[in-house]
Design brief:
By secondary structure, the chain is an alpha/beta fold. It is 49% helix and 12% strand. It is built from 21 helices and 13 strands. The protein has a 5-stranded parallel beta sheet with strand order 6-3-2-10-11. Helix 4 links the parallel strand 2 and strand 3. The radius of gyration is 28 Å and the shape is elongated. About 1% of the residues have low confidence.
C-alpha cells in the first residue's frame, strides 16, 4: 500500500506544502548529485584529529571505516547525513526508516557511479531520558496490544542521556519479553550511546559511519562556529524573530519558540557529570552543547554534508534557521525528507487488500471501518429503524392534531417526548447494528489487527512502536525490506509486508 503523506495523521503542514513545491522558506532541490565528478570536488577542510577520532570511535563500535573516512576527507565522495536520539534497543520504527533512507540514497547513487559517504549523527547530548528509555512492543504475534518497556530516571533530569548507563531493569524487561541471550550491546554498564551504536553497527555494517555528537574533537572543530554565533548573538536573535513572524504570517508554526517569549536558546553548557545549564560566554567548546537550532549548523559546518535527510520536524528546523546559514557563512545542504514506512506481517497486509481498506481508514478505528463494510442484516436493521421512526413520528403528529385544540399545554410535552423517543429509538437501533457487526468475528478480528498494528492507541506505528520487536521475528528480512521499499524525499508513505 502506498498513499499520500497528506493522509498520514499529524503531518507537518509546512512540510506538505514544501513537498508540493513551496520554496518561500526552504529551497527544494530534488537533484541527488551536484553533477561534479569526484575528482573535481575540493579536499574538505577538516580540523586536525577529527578523522582519526571518527575512525577510532567507530572501530570501538565494530565499524572499520578508516578507508572510507580518508576518501571522504580527500573530497572523493558525496556526503549525506541523518541523525537521531540514541533510543534504547534502536528506538521507534522511524529511526530505522531514517537509517534505511540513508542507505537507500547511498545504494542508488553508487549504482549511478556516484561515490557516497553516509553519516549518522548520534544525538548523545539529548536529555530526554523518558523518551530514550522507553520501548513500545507488540504484546503478542497478533499485534493487538502494546506493552511499554521503560525505566524511571533517578538522576537529575538535565543530564545528557548518551553517556548514562542503560538501567538493568530496562535490559531485564527486554530479555524476558523475547527470551533471547544477552547480547554484547546490552552488557552490564554499557551506555545508551554505545548500546545504540553497537546495535546499528551489527545491523548495517559499514554502510554508514556513526558520529557521536559529544566527541571532543567534533566540539573543538566547531569552536570557530561557536565563536561566530556568540559574536553575532543579537543579529541572530533578530533574524530568528523575523523568520518567526514570516512563518506565522504564512499560517505556519515555528518549531522552536523563544525562551520566555523573548530570546532563543543557542547553547547549553555540560558540566563534568553531563548536567546541562545555559552556556556562558566563556564555555569551552568541549563543554558546549548545541540547542535544536544550532545543532544543524554545527553538523553543516564541520561535516559539510551535501544532503541532509531528516524527519518532518527537522525539515521545519531548517526553514526556521535557513537565514543563519548565509549570515554565518555555513553552506546549506540539500534538505530531503526521510522515507515514511509502516510494517506489518503478511496476514495483516492481505487483510487490508481483502477488505479493500483505504489508507485514510487505517487511521480511524475498527468499528468505523466495519460500518463501511457492514453485513446485509445491518442494512435491513437500519431500513427498519428508519421506517419505524417515521411511522412513530407520524402517529405522534396525529395525536397532536387531535389533542392540541383542547389542551394547549400539551405542545411542550409532545416536543419533549419526541426528543426522548428519537434518542432511545436511535440508541436501540445502534446497539442492534453493533451486535450484528461484531457477530462477524473473523472479519472484526482482522480489521482490529490492521488498526492496532498500524495505528496503535491512536498513534501512527512508526512514531511509537519498536523496530527491534519486528527484527526479533523477521531478522534480516525486516532490514532489507525497509531499505528496498523506503522512498526518501517522497510525498508518500508505504505499508510494507513482512
Amino acid at each position: 500500500m502506498k498513499a499520500p503523506l497528506a493522509q498520514y495523521p499529524g503531518m507537518n503542514r509546512f512540510v506538505l506544502d514544501w513537498l508540493n513545491g513551496d520554496e518561500r522558506f526552504l529551497r527544494r532541490n530534488t537533484r541527488v548529485d551536484d553533477g561534479a565528478p569526484a575528482a573535481s570536488r575540493p579536499v574538505r577542510w577538516l580540523p586536525a584529529g577529527l578523522t582519526a577520532a571518527l575512525k577510532q570511535s567507530n572501530k570501538q563500535w565494530g565499524l572499520f571505516v578508516g578507508d572510507q573516512l580518508e576518501k571522504w576527507a580527500s573530497g572523493g565522495t558525496l556526503t549525506i547525513i541523518a541523525g537521531q536520539q540514541v533510543g534504547f534497543a534502536g528506538g521507534p520504527l522511524y529511526t530505522l526508516a531514517k537509517i534505511a533512507s540513508l542507505v537507500r540514497f547511498k545504494r542508488d547513487m553508487e549504482k549511478n557511479g556516484v561515490p557516497v559517504t553516509a553519516f549518522f549523527w548520534l544525538a548523545t547530548e539529548d536529555h530526554d531520558f523518558d523518551e530514550v528509555a522507553r520501548l513500545n512492543v507488540p504484546a503478542s504475534d497478533r499485534q493487538l496490544d502494546l506493552l511499554c518497556i521503560r525505566a524511571v530516571r533517578t538522576a537529575e533530569s538535565r543530564v545528557a542521556v548518551g553517556s548514562q548507563p542503560v538501567p538493568e531493569e530496562l535490559i531485564a524487561q527486554l530479555l524476558a519479553m523475547y527470551e533471547i541471550p544477552r547480547p554484547a550491546w546490552l552488557r552490564e554498564g554499557i551506555t545508551f550511546r554505545d548500546s545504540f551504536a553497537e546495535l546499528i553497527a551489527e545491523m548495517f555494517g559499514s554502510e554508514i559511519i556513526l558520529v557521536d555528537a559529544l566527541l571532543p574533537e567534533l566540539r573543538r572543530a566547531g569552536a570557530p562556529l561557536f565563536d561566530k554565533i556568540r559574536a553575532n548573538h543579537d543579529q541572530i536573535q533578530k533574524k530568528l524573530h523575523d523568520r518567526a513572524r514570516e512563518l506565522d504570517s504564512a499560517g505556519y508554526s515555528e518549531q522552536v519558540i523563544a525562551r520566555d517569549g523573548n530570546e532563543y536558546t543557542l547553547f547549553f553548557e555540560l558540566d563534568e557529570h553531563g548536567r546541562r545549564s545555559l552556556a556562558k560566554a566563556d564555555t569551552p567548546p568541549e563543554r558546549t552543547s548545541t540547542s535544536a537550532l544550532t545543532r544543524p549548523l554545527l553538523q553543516d559546518f564541520v561535516l559539510q554534508p551535501d544532503i541532509f535527510v531528516g524527519g518532518p520536524a527537522e525539515v521545519a528546523y531548517y526553514a526556521q534557521i535557513s537565514p543563519l546559514h548565509e549570515m554565518l557563512g555555513v553552506p546549506m545542504p540539500r534538505v530531503a525528507l526521510r522515507g515514511h514506512v509502516l510494517v506489518a506481517p503478511k496476514r495483516v497486509v492481505k487483510a487490508i487488500d481483502r477488505l479493500s481498506i483505504q489508507p485514510r481508514e487505517i487511521f480511524t478505528n475498527a468499528d468505523a471501518i466495519l460500518a463501511e463494510r457492514e453485513p446485509e442484516a445491518v442494512a435491513k436493521v437500519r431500513a427498519l429503524a428508519d421506517e419505524g421512526k417515521r411511522e412513530l413520528m407520524q402517529r405522534i403528529a396525529q395525536i397532536g392534531e387531535l389533542a392540541l385544540p383542547a389542551e394547549h399545554s400539551l405542545a411542550g410535552s409532545i416536543q419533549r417526548s419526541v426528543g426522548h423517543l428519537e434518542y432511545h429509538f436511535d440508541k436501540l437501533a445502534e446497539r442492534a447494528v453493533k451486535g450484528l457487526v461484531r457477530k462477524d468475528r473473523e472479519r472484526h478480528a482482522a480489521v482490529r489487527e490492521v488498526v492496532t498494528t498500524l495505528y496503535p492507541d491512536r498513534h501512527v506505528q512508526d512514531r511509537v512502536v519498536s523496530w527491534f520487536a519486528y527484527w526479533c521475528r523477521f531478522r534480516e528480512v525486516l532490514i532489507e525490506r525497509v531499505i528496498e521499499e523506503v522512498e526518501p524525499d517522497s510525498a508518500y508513505f508505504k505499508v510494507i509486508s513482512l
